[in-house]
Structure formats: C-alpha cells, structure tokens
Amino acid sequence: MIPIAKPQLGEEEKQAVLEVLDSGMLAQGPRVKAFEEAFAAMCGVKYAIATSSGTTALHVALLAHGIGAGDEVITSAFTFIASANSILYTGARPVFVDIDPATFNLDPAKIEAAITPRTRAIMPVHLFGLTCDMGPIMELAAQYGLVVIEDACQAHGAEYRGRRAGSFGTGAFSLYPTKNITSAEGGMITTNDPVIDEKCRVLRQHGMRRRYYHDELGFNFRMTDVHAAIGLAQLGKLERFNAARIANAAFLNAHLTGVIPPVTPEGQRHVFHQYTVRVKGGQRDALAEHLKAHGVGSMVYYPVPIHQQTFYVNELGYDLQLPETEAAAAEVLSLPVHPALSPADLETIVAAVNSFDEV
Questions:
Q1: Which of 65, 270, 278, 356 has its Cα between 20 and 30 A from that of 124?
Q2: Per-residue pLDDT at 259
Q3: Same domain, yes or no: 78 and 139
C-alpha cells in the first residue's frame, strides 16, 4: 500500500537525538534555542517560539494578543478542529466564513460582512500547504484594527508574493509527524513583534520571567531539546522535501483524469502538505475504495466541517450554512504526494485514479 503520508527520518535525526541524550540536557535548552533561531530565519521573521504542539502554538499566539472572553475571531470551518478549538480555549468565539472553492482557503470577499464590534482577530488557515490570499486579508485587518493570527500548521515554506507563511501576522506552525517537517511533536510561533515574542515565552512556561517567580497564569507548553534536535535536523531538509512535493504534484496534475486537481494561484508557492482533488458526482468515497483495492492510500480532510461538528452544534449553538465549505467536505480526497514516493509510485497512483472511470 502506498501510504498517504510517510515521515522522512534518517541518520541525522537519530544522531541529533543521541547527542541530546548524551548531553543530559533534555528539557527546553540550547537545541530549542537553535531551532527557534533557524525557524525564524526560514520564515523571514525576527522571532520564533517553540511550543509543545501546533494547537498550543495557536492557543498561546491568541492569548499573547489579548484575545479572550467576549471576543470574536474570524476563521474557516474547513480545517482541523484545533484551529477553532484554540479560539475557544481563550474564551473567545470562532466566527466561520465560507471558503474559495478553488483554493479551499478563506474567501477574502466574505470576511468583511462577518466583522462585528466584537471582532478582534482574523485567523486565516493556510490549508494543505497553500497560503490564503493575504493581500486583501491584511488590508481588511488594517482597516478594522484587527490582529492576524496565521494558522500555518500545514504551510512550512509556503509563499505569498515572495513572503513566507507566518511572516504576515503572528504565525503558528505544527510539527506533527505527518507535516512537511516534524519534531515528532511540537509547534512554533513566529512574529516580528518583540512584545508578542516575550509574552509567548512567558505563557508557554508557567508565566515565569524569572525562575520560580510567576507573574501571570501560564502553561507547560514547552518543547524538549529531544524534539528540537529532530526538528532542527528536519529543517535542514525542508527545501528538498518541499521541492519533491511540488514536483510530485506537478506530475499528478499533468497525468490525472476524472478529478479536479488542486490549483496554485499566480504569485504563490504551494508546498503540498496534502495533494487534494475534488471528485464530483458523489463518487468520492467510491474512488477511495477503488484506490485502496489498487494499493493506493488516500484520506478525506475534512469530512465534517467544524460548524457541523456535534459539539459545536449541540453545545455552542452553531446553526449556519457555508455552501462552499460543505460542498468541499463532500467532494475532497487527498492522494499521496510525500517525498518518499518513487516514479513507480506516482505511475501507480495515476493508473489507479484514471482507471476508476472504467469501473
């Protein structure tokens, strides 16, 4: 079976972990600092703050900007639930806006109508490795005095008009094993604001500025040096990994039939965390079964939009229609695009997809 994802871990990661174990410095230490500095450089920002996961990165980033009870944050319902849950953790409320059907990302033209006196932030989600249309989003944020928290958890190295994801507002990245690079588990916040940088560092470590002096309520959201060592080794491979994903996606785009391939708008660099097609005619699930029978893994991200999740409907009272989001949830299917794919794997994927029309 060709898997939908396959983490690429080698001798560099193993050696880096062994060096940390031999050093005896296992908690947040010099490897975390080095990883933060390298990650900031990759994104083209001044600061990066390592955390324990992408979810905690989003949570801390929101808190650092003072988002809390009574506030509203505009975001997408077509994403992993952690995007919206991180808003709930602060006491704020997610306000869902529909997506652009071509990109699966927030439709900037629909954001302004969702802004109310309670709106404090916009959280664009750079889904599947493609940045949102950040030009109009940043213009709206400036016009209304809103914070921008980029959910870049799937967009390591993605670009919009020459700028990296995570460099427009305050960024949040995931380093989960299936992402474009991993630290086994972890997250990263990016910012150019020294006040936000300092606030994030305090929040992730029990509210401490000095050891055992707790100035405010904080959390244990730290990254260990073991995880940072893996992440630092992975970061050195990010461009190679992304180049392979982009090349694999180009091959699939050129050869697949019967499905609608993903798009890359002009001026953007899609790094294909997922290669996600649309399958019309209610045939998505049948295609997934067909691929499985032919040895090709696939996955539906995400079959139930957040505004239709049981907790959001029953406990939080969400009752709205997002037609493009709901249509995408019924039609999307992600195919393997990871760097471990061989030319033969790509041929197998194409043959399996294209043969579905013959069934």
A1: 278
A2: 98
A3: yes
Q: Which domain holds residue 269?
A: 239-358
* pLDDT bucket at 288, cuts 50 / 70 / 90: very high
Q: Look at the alpha carbons of 226, 228, 229, 233 in this order and tell me if their dihedral is positive or negative.
A: positive
Q: pTM value?
A: 0.96
Pair (221, 252) in one structural domain:
no
Beta strands 159-160 and 163-164 are antiparallel
Q: What are 349's two structure tokens?
A: 């994927």
CATH code for position 250: 3.90.1150.10
| Chain-centre distance for alpha carbon 121 | 18
Say if CB 160 and CB 268 are below 8 A apart. Answer: yes
74-95 residues labelled b (16+ CB within 10 A) or e (exposed): bbbbbbbbbbbbbbbbbebbbb
Question: Do 86 and 176 fall within a single domain?
Answer: yes
Per-residue model confidence as pLDDT tens digits over 305-327 = 999 999 999 999 999 999 999 99
Question: Are residues 210 and 244 both part of a single domain?
Answer: no
Do 350 and 332 belong to one domain? yes
Contacts (Cβ under 8 Å, ≥6 apart) of 281:
none
Name the domain count of the chain. Answer: 2
Q: Encoding tokens for residue 229?
A: 């060592």
The average confidence (pLDDT) of the chain is 97
